[in-house]
Amino acid sequence: MAEQAVTGYKKWLEGVGEQGVFFTSFFRNIFRGGFEWSEFVRQCYEIGYRSMMLVGITSFIMGLVLILQLRPSMLELGAESMLPKTLAVSFIREIGPVIIAIICAGKVASGIGAELGSMKVTEQIDAMEVSGANPLQYLVVTRILATSLMIPLLTIIGDAIGLFGGFLALNFTDDISFSLYFHKCIASLEFIDLFPALVKTVFFGFAIGFVGCYKGYNSNKGTESVGIAANSAVVTASLWIFVIDALAVQITSLLFYR
């Protein structure tokens, strides 16, 4: 039993070390010449545009459901007029960024892990190294930078769609104009609601891209390793999203609510 614990601990330390080396290699390759702009733009399209429909539908349903769930409680308190403010603050601060990041972890991180894992299995990455190309710069740097850029943009779009879903849900039972609803939403938001939420989505995107690339790039050579890499990428990226979110909340509280 003790030997198994020691072996597991050694494997964990080896994994941490490998991730540290991969992390430093990523940053070292950002500043090398010959950045692959065409591949970066293609990844932005694949990660951002192709995820927009899923993000939009999910955000719309979340905004609609939140209003329908909050309305009975707010009616009991006589605070029905606070529904737009409550939705805007909760959705933009926490619900929108985390839900959208989890969705992208399931779609993007698994896709990157499976793609790079299959390239590893079919020895395409080895062929790139033999031919003198830089697979880290072409495959890893472009994908991590693309996720770091597109996840915040998807979050902004998802927040707007979620607030619109809340507006439609509120109009099922109450008569409120579009301009009044969004005026209440915008007026309720402050800098401490917008800026920390946007900054942490950059870290969400980085975690999604980094985990997907690491799991795929370092997968074992075997057909089953592709599925393992994709599944492990989703689980690990989701865990990192919750860890980053918890840290972001603590840092925001220390900086802005002291």
TrEMBL record:
The chain crosses the membrane at residues 47-70, 91-112, 144-170, 191-217, 237-257. It holds the Pfam family MlaE. One of its GO terms (cellular component) is ATP-binding cassette (ABC) transporter complex. InterPro entries: ABC_MlaE_roteobac, Permease_MalE. GO terms for molecular function: phospholipid transporter activity. Keywords: Membrane, Transmembrane, Transmembrane helix. It comes from the Bacteria. Belongs to the MlaE permease family. This is ABC transporter permease. It comes from Mucilaginibacter phyllosphaerae. The lineage of its organism: Bacteria, Pseudomonadati, Bacteroidota, Sphingobacteriia, Sphingobacteriales.
